[in-house]
Amino acid sequence: MLRGRSGMAHVCIGVFGRDASPTGNKGRVLSAKRSYFLGFLMLGLWAAVALRRVWGDWGEDLAALYMAGHMIRIGKPELVYLVSAENFVNSVPEAWLPEMARLGVGGLTAFPYIYPPLWAVLVAPLTGWLGPRGFNDLFAVAQVSLMVLGVWLAWRLAGRAARIPFWAWAGFSGLLLQTGFVPAFALELMQPQIAVTILCILSVERLAHGRNVAAGVALAVAAAIKLTPAVLVVIFLLERRWHALAAFLLSAAALLAVGLAVAGGDLHAAFLENTSRIRGVMVLTCPNFSISSTLYALWYQLGLVAPLSGEIKNTVIHGPPVSITLLSKVLLAAVLLVAWHAGRRLSEAWRLPYMLFQLTLFAGLFGPFSWGHYFLVQVLLAPVLLALAGRAVRFGAGFAVVLGGSVLTVVRMNMWPDPGFTCASAAALTLFAVGLAVSVVAGRAARGHWPAPGPLRPNEASL
After folding, report:
1. Are 218 and 237 in contact (CB under 8 A)?
2. Which residues cross the membrane (predicted)?
3. What DSSP line would sit under 45-108, residue for residue?
C-alpha cells in the first residue's frame, strides 16, 4: 500500500483527477479553478433548497433567543430565564405566551432560553426592527451560509491534507447536508449549534495554518455561546500552542467582561441559577444521543431503576442513579485515552482534524445532553472517507454514512417502541462505534499501515 506524501497524492489523483493537488502547471491550476467552481455551485444549489425549506418558518431554538431579546427590549429582563426541569423539553415558558400571541406566533413553540445573557442583549434591538418571521429569515440566511463556509473550512482542514479535490468534498458534503438528520435537525430548530460548530472548525483550521491567535479567539467566541467547545483547549495544550491558549483565555475574559458590562450582574446570576435547575436532569428522547441514556435503558431492563409509566418518548428523569454518572465518566476517560494514544503519532496534517473529530464526538456523547445537532462536526468531516484506499471500501463506507445518518432512518427509528430508549440508544452506540473505529484507523495510520500525508506545502499553509 502506498504511504507518505507522494503516495497519498498519487492515490487521490488516480481516483479524483488532476486537480487533487492545488499546485503544478497551468492546466492543473485551471483544473483547480473548475473544481472550486463546481464545488461551490453544488453547495449553492443545496443552500437554495435549504433556504426554501426554512424560509418563513419558526425555529424553536432561535425563538428562544428572539423572545429573550424581546423581553429585554420591553423592559422585562426577569422573564428571560424561566427554564425548569419540568418545562425543559418541548414546552413554552408560560410567561411568554401573552407576548407571543401579541407578536402573531401564539400557538407555536419557543423553547426556554438557556444561553448567556450577552447574546440576548445584543439581539434585543433587532427584535424591535424585525418580527419573529423576519428574524428567523435573517438568521436562516446566516446559518445556511455558515454551513457552506463550514464545508470549505473542513476541506481546508482535512480535505486538502488527504488530497481530495474540492468538488468531490463539496459534492459528498452536499449529499450529507441534504439527506442527513443532523443538519436537518439543526436547521429545523435554527440551532445556535451551527454557529458554534463552524467556529470550532475555524479554530482548528486556523491552528493548522499557523494562525494561533485567530484560533484562540474563534474558540473563545464558540465557548461564549455554549461551554462545551472549551474542551478543544486540550488541542492547544497537546500541540503546545501557547499563543492560541493565551488568545483563548484573554478573549474569553474580554467576552465575560463585555457581557457583565452590557447585561449586568443580575442577568448573569439568573443565568447561573437557570443552569443549576436542569443539572442532574436526563431526557429520554430519540434525538438525544446520550451514552448516559443508553446506560439508563440498560439499568431499566435489568430492573435497577424504577419502572416508568406510558411510552418512553419524551421522558424527563430527575436524579438518575449515581452509578450511571460514575460509569459514564470512567467510559469517557477510557475512550479519550484510547483516542489520544491512537492518534498521538499521526502527522500534524491528520492529527488536528482527528482530534477535532474525536473530542467533539465524545464530548457530545458523554455530555449532560447529547442532542443530535451536536454532531455536525462529524458530518462536515465525513467526506474524508473519500481518501480511504480501495473503491469498494470508499463506496461501502460512504453508503453506510449516508444511509445510517439519513432523516428517513432516524424518523423510522423514532417509530420504534419506546424511542427514548431504543432510538436514542441505537444512535448513541453507533456514534460510539464510529469513534472507536476512527481510533483504530488512526492507530494503523500512525504505524504506517494506512496512507497518510505529510505536512501542507508552504503556499497552502499561508492561505
Report:
1. no
2. 36-55, 113-131, 138-155, 167-187, 213-238, 244-269, 281-302, 322-340, 352-372, 392-411, 423-446
3. HHHHHHHHHHTT---HHHHHHHHHHHHHHTT-GGGS----SSSSSS---GGGHHHHHHTT-TTS
Grid cell locating 126 = 433587532
CA angle 458, 462, 463 (to 5 degrees): 125
Q: Where are the domains of the chain?
A: 33-211, 281-449
pLDDT in tens, 270-323: 999 988 888 888 889 899 999 999 999 999 889 888 888 777 888 888 888 999
- In this predicted structure, the answer to whether residue 29 has a pLDDT above a threshold of 70 is no
User: What is the value of pTM for the model shown?
Assistant: 0.89
Phi-psi region of 58 (alpha: psi -120 to 50; beta: other; left: phi over 0): beta
Buried-exposed string 378-416: b where 16+ CB fall within 10 A, e elsewhere: bbbbbbbbbbbeeeeeeeebbeebbebbbbebbeebbee
d(CA 185, CA 13): 35
CA 20, CA 164: separation in Å to the nearest integer?
Answer: 5
Report yes or no: 46 and 145 within 8 Å, Cβ to Cβ.
Answer: no
Cell of 280: 442532574
